[in-house]
Amino acid sequence: MRRAMSTLIYAKSERLHPGLLDNMVSGGAEAIEVFASRGHFNYTDRQHIREIGNWFRSTGVAFHSMHSPMYNDEQWGRDGVAVNIAATEKRERIAAMDEIKRAIEVAEQAPFRFLVQHVGVSNEESSEHKIEAAMSSLEHLHAFAKPLGVQLLVENMPNDLSTPQALIDLLQAGRFVDIGICFDVGHAHIMSSVKGAFDALKDRIHSTHAHDNKKDHDSHLWPGNGTVDWKEAMSLLRSAPQAPPLLLEVEEGGGDRISERMSEAFGKLEEEG
């Protein structure tokens, strides 16, 4: 599997710059997922976009995906609100879509392949109105992203709208044949089981999020620091028909050793399965 890394590990503490990306490449990353948080990667700042786009062009490293914004401020939600495409208030939903479209527009200067999109927020309960809202939002975002060469991927996550079966039902009801799945191993582990979630979603999996937890909360640990059965998980991921990358999405600190921790993690995971 192709080695990939999310910039989430820096997203709450550092502005994204070429040095951080170089560090990820030193750790073995062949492709990158950029986390769209204004305080980390300011997708509304043309100069910042140009700086990051130039790095991708000059290095040849793949700009694999962008994680859609979760908040509309620079302080991880402390000064703003959650970006929620399942909001039942039309005003909130339009504001969320406008924020996401600003991130998608990065592809005009720095092309990327996939946008990873949450449906609802953490621990959100489902309702008929929320499902309809999410379907409408996805239809709108899909129409906006497609001409820019960006494919939407929805992510299994801890809420009632984003269980594996709920996502399949949503995509089928909306006839979204070219909206795929970003399969999150850690979320599958905490919600039910990695195998059960994978079996439900495997035909649509185009990307992954690999991180660990102790099945108690969504802690985004380095693989091996929780209770995920990585031998089973890697065997499953290698069997995915769309050949997704192995993309680490870790929040647990690594200090100055992030590239070393990445290399160790890739090595251990590749020995599994």
Topology, please?
Layout: E1 3-6, H1 8-11, H2 18-26, E2 31-35, H3 46-59, E3 62-67, H4 90-104, E4 114-117, H5 128-145, E5 151-155, H6 164-173, E6 180-184, H7 185-191, H8 194-201, E7 205-209, H9 230-238, E8 246-248, H10 258-271
Parallel strand pairs: 1-2, 1-8, 2-3, 3-4, 4-5, 5-6, 6-7
Structural class, from secondary structure content? alpha/beta
Figure out the total of helices: 10
End-to-end distance: 12 Å
Number of strands: 8
- Low-confidence segments, given as residue ranges, are none
Order of SSEs: EHHEHEHEHEHEHHEHEH
Name the CATH superfamily classification: Divalent-metal-dependent TIM barrel enzymes
What is the number of independent domains? Answer: 1
CATH topology value: TIM Barrel
- By CATH reckoning, the class would read Alpha Beta
Rg, rounded, reads 17 Å
Describe the global form: globular
Average residue pLDDT: 95
Order of strands across the biggest sheet? 7-6-5-4-3-2-1-8
User: Share of helix among residues?
Assistant: 25-40%
CATH architecture verdict: Alpha-Beta Barrel
Strand content: 5-15%
Q: Main β-sheet: number of strands, strand sense, barrel status?
A: 8 strands, parallel
Structure description:
The protein is α/β, with parallel strands linked by helices. It has one domain (3-271): Divalent-metal-dependent TIM barrel enzymes (TIM Barrel), CATH 3.20.20.150. It has helices spanning 8-11, 18-26, 46-59, 90-104, 128-145, 164-173, 185-191, 194-201, 230-238, 258-271; strands spanning 3-6, 31-35, 62-67, 114-117, 151-155, 180-184, 205-209, 246-248. Strands 7-6-5-4-3-2-1-8 form an eight-stranded parallel beta sheet. Helix 7 (185-191) crosses helix 8 (194-201). It is globular.
